[in-house]
Inverse folding.
């Protein structure tokens, strides 16, 4: 187990290094100047600015400098937020995104799994069709439409919740719902398919034959096995939710990472692009590891080391 | 709007500066608001802002959100008022100006103080200006606004001359003497620009890297102080009234809350649900639904959009081809049907209602009228002639445009007009983000480019300067001896003769458009904003900072 983990961690670091390198060179291929006042600067003024930020050096040297700085834990400074440290910039922004993502993930998964189980247990009834409808709508309505509708009807028309901003828990309700519609539909669809299959398997028949109640059969025996594929898709989904949604953050005016990341690409804010990409990548790799470990907890047939014990 | 016409007429007559009076209802109503400061309504305001404050260091700022914030929590020698005139702020009255117009001597108000109680001194200005010319400081607006204007600025920034050689000297604690490279008629309005604000040397040095990092690591000398600003990623912050401000008795508002909203529909929704009193500028699609709404405040911005034609392209080097392109766009149809937000067709390169003849008070546009108006028939003739001169019957051009929704619609409309009116023309649209467009502008990697310009100072030169040979913003290989000479005269021999200088700049515009058809002006933008009716004294500006909040009072 520990040997396996060590191997995985080393692989993770190599992956991160490759991602950092690839992003660095791809980013340098994007045309654009990071100086917002570039159109007003003369050529000699621009040259002085480029020299100050080391942008006049050949790209391989810039790359080497950047990599050395990362190893020292220095992600550089942002251009669009005049000289602010990128680490601090991300720290300031990650809170709201992570809070929303976590809430949406918890609410979405629980509600989605519940919908899926109900649909599977009551196949071809109105409960099943209803849950399918929710899942299909959730997957097919673009989030900007859903978020805008929630805001308009619930906040503006009915005045039940705040329209936007980030000042307290009640401000997070609408964005959480808007964000959770996707995990709900994913979880519900996967859960239903798996449950139907598992409920037809031999060991469930055996459990029934032993006289277990249908509640016990469904939740004690069937659910655990049916969760495996759901966890496979939900792991990476959690990362993308927690690192911020551009659309939901824009519509509800939430100061998160999603909006900032997209903007940093548009304005060629190189250090912020790199910093955010590295964070996303690290989280992603980490979650995949966690998912692998979870498999073995849920299903003892899966062994992490894969070899003989 | 109708019932305000008498109001409008009255203000027109009364104001010395005739241009800026089309601000709309709220702007013209504001006379005497400071008198009803006793109103019982809570003096609190909630404002939607479009972006975070990137920097509160006056030297580093280069965007309107920063400039606007500085304009309200800090102060320079001058300020712009609601009529877009520069009026003394920290300066005790108008400065003394030498005969040759090169030396300005400012007296600083005795009671002007920083929020830590220290007086604002002449050295605070000298320190701040020198700081922004240090190449290591990363200031972009420092060199941009000072080079070629303040004596010695260019040598300090480019050649490493001693900062003390700058033409800004503290004669005594309260006297600042500024020496210019050349006479600048709009110099006092330039002093309203935050880059020229003072900084308290002892405080800045004590804070070091932390200076301007958040509300606590700043000193204020304006009508308000910043509160709860945690730094440049903060999406919400507040102003509180600055009781130490020298004119505090004329400031009614006690508190202003700002929230960053990037989605235009969300801005309107929060206004509609009563969570905000002033929105950000409405996007074009939202304007029609508020047409006729008494709370909609609109004004013509001095911002023009035009198409630059890169003369490195063989076809565009031909004057007849350029003229044909310029005459074949139905701008009226564009502003009526595509933009539909009150923007007007532009047949000029210096905006309407922006600057006036210093002698007669006549608008810049009155003298020059419309140049390069839509005329598809004439366009076809010029086109045929141009093609004959080039010896071809087809022309293919790349068109560089923005990537926003409005930009794409506008670009598609323009390309359709060009291709419909000019036979044998193919235009290929390339929609790119702003920063990419800037870079391709600099490297002149385009044929046609849709671009816009807003001025940084209250003078036509803010626009005329763009097109001199090899100018920092020309980037389209336009070069005209006649144009260069007119600009040079305006900046040298005519510099102390405002009326003749004004005429020279008008003549320069005629050379650019009428004689050379060097650019295709398209439209001048209108700003539209929702302001709750209980807000009196909403004030906007044409250059630098966009808004002043201290003239505002809340009435119920």
């Amino acid at each position: 187990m520990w040997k396996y983990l060590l191997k995985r961690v080393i692989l993770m670091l190599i992956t991160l290094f490759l991602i950092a390198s690839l992003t660095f060179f791809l980013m340098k291929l994007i045309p654009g100047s990071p100086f917002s006042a570039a159109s007003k600067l003369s050529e000699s003024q621009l040259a002085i600015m480029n020299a100050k930020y080391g942008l006049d050096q050949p790209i391989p040297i810039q790359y080497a400098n950047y990599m050395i700085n990362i190893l020292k834990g220095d992600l550089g400074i942002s251009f669009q937020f005049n000289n602010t440290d990128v680490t601090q910039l991300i720290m300031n922004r990650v809170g709201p995104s992570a809070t929303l993502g976590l809430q949406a993930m918890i609410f979405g998964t629980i509600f989605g799994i519940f919908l899926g189980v109900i649909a599977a247990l009551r196949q071809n009834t109105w409960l099943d069709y209803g849950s399918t409808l929710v899942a299909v709508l959730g997957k097919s309505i673009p989030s900007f439409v859903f978020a805008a509708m929630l805001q308009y009807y619930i906040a503006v028309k009915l005045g039940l919740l705040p329209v936007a901003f980030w000042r307290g828990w009640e401000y997070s309700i609408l964005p959480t719902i808007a964000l959770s519609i996707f995990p709900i539909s994913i979880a519900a669809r996967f859960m239903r398919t798996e449950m139907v299959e598992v409920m037809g398997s031999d060991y469930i028949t055996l459990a029934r034959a032993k006289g277990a109640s249908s509640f016990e059969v469904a939740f004690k025996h069937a659910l655990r096995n049916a969760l495996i594929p759901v966890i496979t898709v939900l792991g990476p989904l959690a990362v993308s939710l927690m690192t911020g949604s551009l659309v939901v953050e824009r519509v509800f005016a939430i100061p998160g990472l999603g909006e900032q990341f997209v903007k940093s690409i548009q304005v060629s804010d190189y250090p912020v692009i790199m910093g955010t990409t590295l964070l996303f990548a690290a989280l992603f790799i980490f979650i995949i590891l966690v998912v692998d470990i979870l498999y073995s907890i849920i299903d003892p047939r899966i062994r992490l080391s894969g070899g003989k014990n | 709007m109708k019932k305000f016409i008498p109001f409008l007429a009255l203000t027109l007559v009364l104001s010395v500066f005739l241009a800026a009076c089309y601000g709309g209802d709220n702007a013209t109503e504001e006379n005497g608001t400071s008198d009803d400061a006793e109103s019982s309504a809570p003096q609190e305001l909630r404002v939607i802002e479009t972006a975070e404050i990137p920097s509160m260091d006056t030297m580093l700022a280069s965007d309107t959100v920063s400039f606007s914030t500085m304009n309200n929590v800090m102060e320079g020698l001058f300020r712009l008022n609601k009529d877009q005139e520069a009026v003394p702020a920290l300066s005790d009255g108008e400065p003394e100006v030498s005969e040759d117009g090169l030396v300005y001597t400012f007296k600083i108000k005795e009671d002007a103080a920083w929020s830590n109680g220290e007086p604002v001194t002449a050295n605070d200005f000298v320190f701040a200006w020198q700081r922004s010319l240090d190449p290591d400081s990363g200031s972009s607006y420092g060199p941009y606004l000072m080079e070629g204007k303040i004596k010695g600025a260019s040598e300090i920034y480019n050649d490493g001359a001693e900062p003390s050689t700058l033409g800004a000297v503290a004669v005594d604690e309260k006297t600042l003497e500024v020496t210019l490279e050349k006479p600048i008629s709009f110099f006092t309005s330039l002093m309203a620009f935050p880059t020229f604000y003072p900084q308290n040397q002892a405080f800045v040095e004590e804070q070091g890297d932390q200076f301007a990092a958040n509300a606590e690591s700043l000193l204020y000398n304006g009508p308000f102080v910043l509160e709860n600003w945690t730094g440049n990623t903060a999406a919400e912050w507040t102003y509180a009234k600055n009781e130490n401000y020298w004119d505090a008795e004329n400031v009614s508002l006690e508190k202003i809350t700002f929230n960053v909203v990037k989605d235009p529909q969300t801005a309107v929704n929060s206004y509609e649900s009563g969570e905000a009193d002033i929105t950000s500028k409405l996007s074009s699609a939202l304007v029609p639904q508020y047409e006729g709404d008494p709370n909609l405040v609109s004004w013509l911005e001095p911002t023009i959009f035009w198409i630059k034609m890169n003369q490195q392209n063989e076809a565009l080097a031909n004057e007849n081809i350029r003229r044909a392109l310029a005459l074949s766009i139905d701008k009226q149809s564009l502003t009526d049907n595509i933009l539909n937000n009150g923007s007007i067709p532009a047949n000029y390169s210096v905006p309407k209602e922006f600057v006036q003849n210093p002698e007669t008070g006549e608008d810049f546009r009155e003298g020059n009228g419309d140049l390069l108006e839509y005329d598809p028939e004439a366009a076809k003739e010029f086109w045929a002639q141009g093609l004959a001169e080039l010896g071809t019957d087809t022309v293919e051009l790349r068109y560089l445009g923005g990537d926003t929704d409005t930009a794409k619609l506008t670009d598609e409309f323009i390309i359709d007009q060009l291709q419909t009116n000019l036979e044998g023309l193919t235009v290929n649209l390339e929609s790119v983000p702003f920063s990419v467009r800037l870079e391709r502008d600099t490297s002149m990697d385009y044929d046609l480019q849709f671009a816009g310009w807003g001025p940084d100072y209250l003078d036509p030169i803010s626009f005329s300067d763009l097109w001199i040979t090899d100018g920092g913003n020309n980037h389209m290989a336009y070069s005209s001896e006649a144009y260069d000479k007119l600009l040079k005269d305006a900046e040298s021999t005519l510099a102390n003769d405002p009326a003749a200088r004004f005429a020279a700049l008008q003549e320069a515009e005629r050379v650019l458009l009428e004689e050379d058809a060097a650019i295709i002006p398209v439209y001048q933008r209108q700003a539209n904003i929702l302001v709750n009716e209980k807000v009196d004294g909403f004030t906007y500006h044409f250059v630098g900072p966009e808004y002043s909040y201290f003239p505002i009072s809340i009435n119920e």
Notes: Residues 154 and 232 of chain A are 34 Å apart (CA to CA). Chain A touches chain B through 52 residues (CB under 8 Å). The mean pLDDT of chain A is 86.
